[in-house]
Amino acid sequence: MKIELSDWRQLLRPGDYVLLLFATVAVAASYPLAWRSQQNAQRVRIFANGTLFAERDLSGPARLAVPGPLGDTIVEIADGRVRIAADPGPRQYCVNAGWLEHAGQLAVCLPNRTAIELPTAVPRYDSLSY
Amino acid sequence: MRRLILHPIRHTPIPKRDTLPEDVPADPMPSVPTLRATSEDKQVAHMAAVAIGLSMIDAAFPSPIPGIKPGLANIVTLIALQWYGWRVTAWVVGLRVIASALLVGSLLTPGFWLSLAGAGCSLLILAPFSRLPKRWLGPVGLSVIAAMFHLLGQWLVARYWLIPSAGLVYLLPPLATAALITGCINGLIAARWLTQHPHSTPIETGP
């Protein structure tokens, strides 16, 4: 049985073309929308001495001094990213962590007992089997 | 609600009381309840049987990516929609979801809830769309929109109940692409079938 292209075209009604067009546009648009919006975290949570010190939006530029036992840890927020700009700790691990922008990242300044975290929704299940 | 007509089977024909001969004993089993299938029941059963068969093929289909399945049973959904309307289709889909879950052994597992959410969501969107004039909207359009809403229903259940993680949004674009393609193919198959069989074949009605 030979099937011509025109045979298949006859199967489509005007509304089918409209819905196909809508669906194709929606699918095409979903790539940039879904894959960009999630890459960057929206908020940062700043901890001092084990308790939440502040929760800030990542959009605006800001500089915060977070007090700790050794002195102030300086948290800098700019362009949807956040970093520990300065810390009184001896090894500077959290400063060297650099800019954080992805949800789930964190930088901890253990000696000064301060930390920044980009929160994610915590999965309720440890695992899921099919 | 579906009407299940309970009616008694009598083993012996009951003569009228006034003509009852003295030697005929009383009916030993007065009534055995049985289900009489209406013609709509037979339509539902007929379509659901084919749909369950196709969903078994679907379940055995080697999927390149988890979550992507051809959804062949939806060809039956589209044909049922054209032949019998939305009500019968809803029954066909519901029976297919439950029966194929029983056969695969996934009843009440996450996979079952995903399947139920997808089926329910696509039925909801098909309710208004299937009432549009058939001259303007055919099986392909219905299939594509149903596939999209099937995915949406599944994704919402996965995102907010099974795996409440923001990361699930990453899966949406590739799954939507697959839904668009499989929706298109299933719609074309159903549309082609319906040009050759525009009306339902009469189902043999037994006793």
Automatic annotation (TrEMBL), chain A:
<dbReference type="InterPro" id="IPR038690">
    <property type="entry name" value="NusG_2_sf"/>
</dbReference>
<feature type="transmembrane region" description="Helical">
    <location>
        <begin position="17"/>
        <end position="35"/>
    </location>
</feature>
<protein>
    <submittedName>
        <fullName>NusG domain II-containing protein</fullName>
    </submittedName>
</protein>
<keyword id="KW-1133">Transmembrane helix</keyword>
<keyword id="KW-0472">Membrane</keyword>
<dbReference type="Pfam" id="PF07009">
    <property type="entry name" value="NusG_II"/>
</dbReference>
<keyword id="KW-0812">Transmembrane</keyword>
From TrEMBL, chain B:
<keyword id="KW-1133">Transmembrane helix</keyword>
<feature type="transmembrane region" description="Helical">
    <location>
        <begin position="111"/>
        <end position="129"/>
    </location>
</feature>
<keyword id="KW-0812">Transmembrane</keyword>
<dbReference type="InterPro" id="IPR010898">
    <property type="entry name" value="Hpre_diP_synth_I"/>
</dbReference>
<feature type="transmembrane region" description="Helical">
    <location>
        <begin position="168"/>
        <end position="189"/>
    </location>
</feature>
<feature type="transmembrane region" description="Helical">
    <location>
        <begin position="136"/>
        <end position="156"/>
    </location>
</feature>
<feature type="transmembrane region" description="Helical">
    <location>
        <begin position="88"/>
        <end position="105"/>
    </location>
</feature>
<protein>
    <submittedName>
        <fullName>Gx transporter family protein</fullName>
    </submittedName>
</protein>
<dbReference type="Pfam" id="PF07456">
    <property type="entry name" value="Hpre_diP_synt_I"/>
</dbReference>
<keyword id="KW-0472">Membrane</keyword>
